Amino acid sequence: MIPMSLFKLAILAATSCVTALGQVQNGSFESAVAGGTVMPAGWSSSVSTGGSATRILPYLSCATDVGFPSDGAKWTRLTSSVMGTLTAFTGVSKIESTFTIGAAGSLLTLDVAFATGENPGDPSWNDFMAVTVTVGATTQTIYLVDTTAGSFPTTMVCSNRPCTGKITLSQNLVTLFPTITTTTPITLRVYVGNGGDTAVPSFGYVDKVTLSSSVVIPPLSLSFLPSGPGNWIMKTNAPALPGAEVFNLVALNLSLPTGSGPLFGIAFDSLVLEQAMSPLGTVPWHVNLDGAGVFQIGPFGIPAGLSVDYIAIAIVGGAVSQVTPASNITF
User: Hey, which residues does 113 pair with through a beta bridge?
Assistant: First the structure.
């Protein structure tokens, strides 16, 4: 019988792609066709039955409007036309993008504007615009403006409607979702919907969706720290993954060049086989990180001149969350 831990590692090594999803692709919509309704790579759009399509601007006589485009030459417009639900964001026009923070940083920013087709302050016809971010089963609303409570100090020229003007939203995703890692899928959604009736559409603008450095999550690391002559401390560190399951794998058979082995860059030799077969709780090979995202053992003696390849693999929810680059050390 194949041990479950070994089977899991073999499957993960064969099928996992532990690279980012490209962070935010085409956040300024520059690769889309101006005037078209097809979103660029990295984005999708959907409209409730009977609704109007989203459109890439500029289009016809609408070349610029209330600070848009705010980056490059294009931006996206969402149009409402069917009945929407303000609380559940149904009956709406919607665009969305799924990404990871990767190495780009965790500060999400985007420029938006909302123009209502109704009379500001009138609760009878409460059109709205919303922006949400979703990780797993958790959704957070980071922006919501409606006709009743919103402020509309300017006019959207291309539609001649009361408008919020350009607003730059900024959200630290690590603050919003403290447990995310550099490979966690994150979905951004923007909605525009009608309330009360469908007689007059409202519009939303979106541009310059970016990630930048704010609080960048330190990646998973495995290190051997000298602690006196011939003694070493082994330390696994993943501050963003407290309590995570971790395999610390050390290969005696070296892969040349380093990182060319079959198991995330290291050889699948007899020692790695033993480590991979070990049940959770086998120190130091198969352990849980503590509440700070750390596992540490030592100091202990290691023969001088011994050379090994090593990796650490963090598993969250049965899937690979992070893997360290394959490294080599000679003690």
Answer: 205
Which stretches of the chain are assigned E, i.e. beta strand?
Answer: 44-47, 55-57, 75-79, 92-99, 107-115, 128-135, 138-146, 154-156, 161-163, 167-172, 186-193, 203-212, 221-226, 231-237, 245-251, 286-288, 294-301, 307-316, 319-323, 327-330
Q: Of the candidates 127, 125, 209, 118, which has an alpha carbon nearest to the alpha carbon of residue 171?
A: 209
DSSP state of 176: H
Q: Give the span between the Cα atoms of 45 and 168, in whole angstroms.
A: 21
Answer for the pair 149, 161: CB distance below 8 angstroms, yes or no: no
Per-residue pLDDT at 48: 56
Q: CB–CB of 162/146 below 8 Å?
A: no
CATH 2.60.120.260 fits 44-212, yes or no: yes
pTM, 2 dp:
0.64
Distance CA 85, CA 196 (A): 9
Question: CA distances (Å), 22 to each of 26, 40, 148, 214, 325, in order?
Answer: 10, 13, 38, 18, 19
pLDDT digit string (tens) for 139-186?
A: 999 999 999 989 999 999 999 999 999 999 999 898 888 888 777 899
At residue 172's C-alpha, the angle toward residues 99 and 47, to 5°, is: 45
Q: Is the distance from CB of 312 to CB of 324 less than 8 angstroms?
A: yes
For the chain, domain boundaries: 44-212, 218-330
> Under CATH, which number does the domain 218-330 receive?
2.20.130
Distance CA 166, CA 69 (A): 10
Can you say whether residue 196 is alpha, beta or left, with left for phi > 0 and alpha for psi between -120 and 50 degrees? left
